[in-house]
Amino acid sequence: MEVDCEGCAGCCIDWRPLTDADIDHERRGPFEPLDDTYNLVPLAREEIRGFVEAGYGDALRPRLWRAEDDERSVALDGVDVAAIDGRPVFFVGLRKPPKAVGPFGTPPTWLRTCAFLDPTTLQCRVHGDDLYPETCATYPGENLAMDVETECERVESAYGGQRLLDDAPPDVTPLFGPAAVGERVFVHPEPDRVAGSVGRFRDDDLTPEDRAEFVAVAAASSPGTLAINDERYEQTLETVLTADSWTGRAIDRWTDAADELGEAAPDPAVAEEIEDDDGAPPTPGW
Hints:
By secondary structure, this protein is an alpha+beta fold. The chain is 27% helix and 16% strand. Strand 5 and strand 6 form a beta hairpin.
């Protein structure tokens, strides 16, 4: 597998406003997410713990799914949510605020972009770092292993050029089914405690408390079981609620500055003031 990512970052950006093509394919699992965040990367439990311990708890967000299967759902606030044993299932990914970006050589546009993507270089600020998620490092490995269209190919179809240079599947084992429980897919132990957040998932209006609750449960989960370590949960909850990273502050600044998604944006160099001047690490270069 070999890819050309320069000037692209299609897998890090919600570029749907840039095209009329149907590119909404990068979904994982059989259910429809409550939110509309595109390409939300599922983090493993140890990766979530790593981000929290590094002070980036405010850069994480959970995802719930709708489910119409009575045996695999629980009703919360009138919404049937995917569940295991009556407990809602979720995963945790990286937040995607609107940023001024110009992928594929397009003019700068307000698009939802991974919190760690530098708009000026279109490179990841934690690339090569211990925090860099395995899913990002191996993308589009799972797609190729399952013979599923990649984001690289969607960009090629819309903008030409060649992004997927070698489509030989790498040695990647997708994590699905029971093996994913407690490792990448998590189960909240108390449905009533999170029932009130369902509407905020749908409206993309999660509060810091909503995000912290799910992140803490994920960090306190145990692989292959529904058990939660109460001490780890409490410690993580406090750490996430008090997190104040450059990433979290930048998300607030980008959100306040952004016009409607898909609208013309200022030069991506505004990221220097919003991110770099507040301590964001540099990108690695190519």
